[in-house]
Specification:
heterodimer, A: 83 residues, alpha/beta, Transcription Regulator spoIIAA, 2 helices, 35% helix, 40% strand, B: 136 residues, alpha+beta
């Protein structure tokens, strides 16, 4: 998995690329959670995600829950057919 | 059409990508799996992930797991073998997915994708034997 972050005002977009499985979910959380905790609205662009299993879905759910706790939100963008 | 492929992998999260590649390559050789390949790979990967996560109680191991992919009489049968803690089938149930929370989705996906899921005690050198069946 690789990623790129772009920011526009208070919106941080994380472009994920590759296959999201148990082996990379900790890395994904290390990228996503600090952005959420900093108060940004986080957009997760999944266009280049070729595979995501339940561990990846769990990251999406955890991200959403953390954002909601902080009164913010996580938005999924360009969800790939695989996802 | 009949085929059979088998391979062992180390029980580690880094093997999951290799397991998926093994399954994709095996299924890609035959048109019959074209529309279901992604789903079958997901089910297998979820089962393998469960071995990594649960069969060794989070402990590192040098053990392998084995994946066999067989197709015969229009039935795809995937056998997974491991040497971890003996599974208790009654403890392995999909949870209510309407309760949106992380975790516990793998078993649900497996049940949705495959036509049969059978837990057995392995007959030979292995401990657990999981069978995933999909009929075509």
């Amino acid at each position: 998995m690789s990623y790129k972050i772009t920011e526009d005002g208070n919106i941080a977009t994380v472009h994920l690329d590759g296959e999201i499985d148990m082996d990379v979910t900790e890395k994904a959380k290390e990228v996503i959670m600090p952005l959420i905790e900093s108060g940004k609205e986080v957009h997760l662009n999944l266009k280049e995600v070729q595979y995501m299993d339940s561990s990846g879905i769990s990251v999406l759910i955890e991200s959403h829950q953390k954002a909601a706790e902080l009164g913010n939100r996580v938005v999924l963008k360009e969800i790939s057919k695989s996802v | 059409m009949t085929f059979s492929e088998s391979k062992e992998f180390s029980v580690h999260s880094s093997s999951l990508k290799e397991i998926r590649s093994f399954a994709r390559e095996a299924l890609a050789k035959h048109d019959i799996f074209k529309s279901s390949s992604d789903d079958v790979v997901l089910a297998l990967a979820e089962a393998a992930q469960n071995i990594v996560k649960h069969a060794y109680s989070g402990q590192e191991t040098s053990d392998n797991l084995k994946v066999e992919i067989n197709f015969n009489n229009n039935q795809l049968k995937i056998d997974l073998y491991d040497k971890g803690v003996p599974a208790i089938p009654s403890n392995i149930k999909p949870r209510n997915v309407n309760d949106i929370k992380p975790g516990g989705l793998g078993t649900f996906f497996i049940g949705q994708i495959m036509d049969e899921v059978v837990f057995k005690t392995a007959a030979t050198d292995w401990v657990n034997h999981l069978i995933l069946i999909k009929n075509y």
